[in-house]
Amino acid sequence: MSEVERVSTGVEGLDQLVDGGLPKMDQIIIAGGPGSGKTLLSMEILYQAAKRGIPSSFIALDLEPKVVLKNFKNAFPAFSDIDDLIAKNLLIVDGEDAATRIQASSDSESYSFGNIVSDIESIVQSNNSKLVAIDSISLLKLLISDKLLYRKSMIALTTNMRRLGVTSVLTAEMVSSERKDLKFSQEFFIFDGIIAMYQMEQEDRRSLGVEVVKLRGSNHSWSLVPYEITPEGFKVYSLQ
After folding, report:
1. Rounded to two decimals, what is the model's pTM?
2. 26-196 maps to which CATH number?
3. Which end of the chain has fewer CB atoms within 10 angstroms, the N or the C?
4. Which tens digits make up the pLDDT trace of 97-148?
5. CA 169, CA 200: separation in Å to the nearest integer?
């Protein structure tokens, strides 16, 4: 396999699962059930990139920026310099309340989606972002009821991200947090990679686990490994 240029996630243990980092300019799904931490993980990847001087943008499709930042700061109090990174324009946090987007889509599904793509492009270009997170593409399924139009829209989104020359992580909801119930929507396979996050029952408690389901054209771990969400960020306990 030819050498793949990669972007480090900056997350402890996660790079070991993806052979040193996410393939540059790939579009990666981070999928999980409620409470698995998929939004926080995508945000930390961008935060760590911004700390390394890589301009990044986090785009929330269903939350206002102030809510995103509040949740991130509450989860990771150790990341006290996030406001400084935003002030330096190394990290953009943008978003809109879900109700507003759903209301806007009532007139025209394709027009609403076109607006979202246009907004994403403007945000990316405003600081020349190299890493982008979109949270969550599951909302787009609510905005576009026609299955064929939705699939075409997802292809258009990934094509646009590649044209912009960015590496992107896109969160998506899974029906179940259990690995045994793993099911992916058909459109997931449009994307270059899938990282799945689980909450698994173990006697009287739940444990967290993550695996790389696919990473197109790239080496990656095939192991399911545990992870924790700590005040200092994610810790992924790779088998290495």
Report:
1. 0.90
2. 3.40.50.300
3. N
4. 655 655 555 555 555 777 888 889 999 999 999 999 999 888 887 777 788 8
5. 23
